[in-house]
Design brief:
single chain, about 200 residues, mainly alpha, about 75% helix, disordered N terminus
Length: about 200
């Protein structure tokens, strides 16, 4: 290997480490919940870099946000489908509900919620202003549906019902997580059991 190749690899490793440290810092800033964190200059300041350095790594603010979302997806992995392939329907549903209940309480999820809250509500405007970020969110929708299909594979469940359950579970679980974070008199363990029972009843072949 030539000296030039060695230097190139070292430079590339430094660049990747710099990029990852920027993404970590951006997530910490967003996870604070401060609406002002959804700002390129604010993120650059929190990262300890200039906006020019951030642009060099990510291109623009849309590139930064899409990279943040991709980074959280890579760290999250495929948790909801963690039940054994030989598990019962109830065990598979419980695995999805429990994993989401814990995962949606984490710092990465708080960061994503902060980012989502700052994005345009109109879908056409969102896709025009932040095409890369919008595409990343759309890829999550399909990936989540695929995860649910794999989670219930082999149980001969109506595919349409699996798609319906995949569509409503994330929002319902965010509601429970919000109740836990805000403080509630509701028994959330009881709520999760009831939610699991309802899904099992609906999906039962």
């Amino acid at each position: 290997m030539t000296n030039t190749e060695v230097a190139g690899r070292r430079s590339n490793k430094r660049g990747m480490a710099t990029r990852e440290s920027m993404l970590d810092a951006a997530l910490r800033s967003l996870a604070s919940g401060d609406p002002g964190a959804v700002s390129g200059n604010r993120i650059a300041k929190d990262i300890g870099a200039t906006w020019g350095t951030v642009k060099y790594q990510f291109g623009d603010i849309d590139g930064l946000w899409s990279a943040v979302l991709r980074y959280t997806a890579e760290r999250r992995g495929d948790l909801p489908a963690s039940a054994s392939v030989n598990a019962s329907l109830r065990d598979r549903v419980s695995a999805i509900v429990d994993n989401l209940y814990e995962g949606l309480s984490g710092a990465d999820s708080r960061a994503i919620e902060t980012l989502r809250a700052a994005m345009p509500r109109d879908r056409a405007e969102f896709e025009r202003a932040y095409p890369l970020t919008a595409a990343e969110f759309e890829s999550w929708r399909q990936a989540w549906l695929d995860t649910c299909r794999r989670a219930f594979a082999g149980l001969e469940i109506d595919p349409q019902r699996v798609a319906e359950v995949a569509a409503f579970i994330p929002g319902a679980m965010r509601g429970m997580v919000s109740e836990r974070q805000l403080g509630t008199y509701t028994d959330l363990d009881l709520a999760r059991r009831g939610f699991t029972n309802a899904i099992v009843e609906y999906l039962e072949p």
